[in-house]
Amino acid sequence: MMSGMGDRFFIEGGVPLAGSLAVRGSKNAASKLMVASLLTDQPSTIENVPMSVEIDITRELCEKIGSTVSAVGDYEIRIVTPKVTTSLVPELSRKNRIPILALGPLLHRAGVAEVPVLGGCPIGHRPIDFHVAALREMGVEIERREHSYYAEAQEIRGADIAFPWPSVGATENVILAAVLAKGKTRIENAAVEPEILNLIEMLRAMGAKIFADESARRIEIEGVSSLGGARIRVMPDRNEIVSFATAALATSGSVCIEEIEDRYVKAFLLSLSEIGAGYEKEGNGIRFFKKGPFGPASVKTEPHPGFMTDWQQPFLVVLTTAEGISIIHETVYEDRLGYTEDLRRMGA
């Protein structure tokens, strides 16, 4: 039983979770697809868009720039930006990490851009050094102001970019800047998360020329002169898949998550096999269930295709019910283990 009071929840546990559900579209993917639509004056339709704060903030950004965003069905939006009415958006009512990705589209459309400093979850130091360095290599002049980033570019040109770390945001930023740039851009040590491939899928549908080699972490983009609109479906939310799966396992339940593919959560499934958790294909989804006592596991968070940093918290909760000693090594964000103090207070 659960009731909400503001941002507080009261939960009465002890009941195994059982049933079937379909997870929402990925907010992390949907927000990037909305930004990609800014690259053209033609309309785009995005399906399977979740209702979330992340989408609300991105919508506010797009509408301030000059976009018309309208609902055309359940979880489906139409977005069109016939003209950029302003490319200077130094502040929004709320913060997330999306506005920095609008720099490329705005520079292509208007030549100048200003977006707010980044917000987001308090999980550790999340600098944008890679974003700035890469954009400068592509001919962008960018400076940090008190509450915003200001950028100018007479012409964005292709460049060879090699990231020291496969940064998701920086990879997305370069892709969005490169699709209309002059010449060819090559990204080495690129992030290749499924959400990035969803973005590439949309850009290709818009007319972009992009080659992605996932195993080599290499993405190549040949700039084109213009892009059109597209229809695209947002991929399932990988974090929701893992959240519901771990909730079922931690409560000794059995839950089927519909309309998902194992390619989205391969590393998670491997870790489930390691602890002896049950999962199996069922129809167009996957059923997760407890088939016996859990054993210990050793997990290291890594960029895709490794074990995603967002998954370690719910998976650690399952490990508190496992026999033996498990190890979680968080390598991405240094402040992402603070919640363990609360688990200790609960007896873990």
Automatic annotation (TrEMBL):
Superkingdom as given in the UniProt entry: Bacteria
One example GO MF annotation: UDP-N-acetylglucosamine 1-carboxyvinyltransferase activity
All copies of domain Enolpyruvate transferase, residue ranges: 12-348
EC numbers for this chain: 2.5.1.7
Classification of source organism: Bacteria, Candidatus Kaiseribacteriota
InterPro entries hit by this protein: Enolpyruvate_Tfrase_dom, Enolpyruvate_Tfrase_sf, MurA_subfamily, RNA3'P_cycl/enolpyr_Trfase_a/b, UDP_GlcNAc_COvinyl_MurA
Coiled coil: none
Signal sequence bounds: none
Name this polypeptide is given: UDP-N-acetylglucosamine 1-carboxyvinyltransferase
Record-linked CDD domains: UdpNAET
Pathway: Cell wall biogenesis; peptidoglycan biosynthesis
Keywords of this entry: Cell cycle, Cell division, Cell shape, Cell wall biogenesis/degradation, Cytoplasm, Peptidoglycan synthesis, Transferase
GO-annotated cellular components: cytoplasm
Gene Ontology biological process terms from the UniProt entry: cell division; cell wall organization; peptidoglycan biosynthetic process; regulation of cell shape; UDP-N-acetylgalactosamine biosynthetic process
Sequence similarity: Belongs to the EPSP synthase family. MurA subfamily.
Entry-linked SUPFAM superfamilies: EPT/RTPC-like
Annotated localization: Cytoplasm
Catalytic activity: phosphoenolpyruvate + UDP-N-acetyl-alpha-D-glucosamine = UDP-N-acetyl-3-O-(1-carboxyvinyl)-alpha-D-glucosamine + phosphate
Organism for this UniProt entry: Candidatus Kaiserbacteria bacterium GW2011_GWC2_52_8b
